[in-house]
Amino acid sequence: MIEQKSIAALTDIKKGKIHRMYLLFGEKSSYAYLKFQIVEQIREKFVDSATIAFDFVELSGEDITVHDVSDVLGSIPFSKVGKGRVVFLKNIDELSASEAKQIYFLTVPSSSVLIIMSKSSKRFEAVKKFVIEKDSVFIREYSVSSDILKTWIKSRCKENGKEISGDAVRELLARCGEDLFLLLSEIKKLTLFIGDNKKIEKSDVEEVVEYTSETKIFNLIYAIVERQKDVALKMFDELLTENNTADGMVVSLLLKTFSQVIFIKELMATTTSRNAFSMDSLSKQFGIKRFAVPKMLSLAKKYQMSQLLEVFHQIEEIDVKSKTGELDRLLHIRLFIQNM
User: Fold this and answer.
1) What structural domains and CATH numbers belong to the chain?
2) CA dist 136 to 60, 63, 108, 131, 256, Å?
3) For the range 210-214, what are the long-range contacts, defined as Cβ-Cβ under 8 Å and sequence gap of 24 or more?
4) Residue 58, Cβ neighbours under 10 Å: how many?
5) Nearest-CA neighbor of 224 among 130, 333, 105, 88?
6) Residues 69-86: pLDDT tens digits?
7) Is 0.70 surpassed by the pTM of this model?
């Protein structure tokens, strides 16, 4: 029984090192691409393409039982070339707790691979106690380093017959974040948009790719802390037009952002190691989106700790008092922006 990161697991699978059971946890939509890459690579390596209709079995739904899974796992594969069978239990969260627990107790024959997908990260530690299959892999980490992410974007562009400039890669990440499915979709749009041109430029990304909601909110937050009041108010109104509960998200993310900047400020005061301030290190240590790291660093350098704490407490007061009904959150966010 081992715990692996998704990238390490994919590397092993591509080399033909495949285990009997894989348990994929995590609820974020941005994890979906790597989850399904793991499933597809196992299927490609372990299942005979001639018998894939019979030897790749996908199970999903609340009526599945441990006997259904056990029967399929134990059946003899149809392949005659030494390949095996893959059973993919797409969403174990739909099953009752008792039925799910029995499935986790299963052992898997050497002729099969069982892949179990859960949208819950909270069950990770509990499930580890149930699983008795020794040749099992637990995966809950789907982060990708910035270098790998940039290389992946360039490779996908190349597959579509195009090159992409470094500025365009950075702009694409700034607008889409790390959602690989979304990035793949936008790359396909960009290759169609530039037509016979061979290279995707930053201006093409600006023309074609919309900011995600999360990126829009972060840009709003950055405009607020940069005291770009008119810009921030306009962004805030646009977000409310798209989502009338955006004011709650803004307060939550403002609190999160300022707490992260405060952590970085504290780190600046206690360490001189350059590696501690790399994009990957700060992203992993404080849970900051990679595209946001440069801006967060600039904010930490720009403001004194006392200023950061004062703003954090102002936002905290808006959050607490709006929940108790003492103030109008929408009105006080506007006042907060105007008074920054």
Assistant:
1) 2-141 (3.40.50.300), 146-208 (1.10.8.60), 213-339 (1.20.272.10)
2) 21, 25, 9, 8, 36
3) 210/175, 211/175, 212/175, 212/176, 212/177, 212/179, 212/182, 213/239, 213/242, 213/243, 214/177, 214/289
4) 12
5) 333
6) 999 999 999 998 889 999
7) no
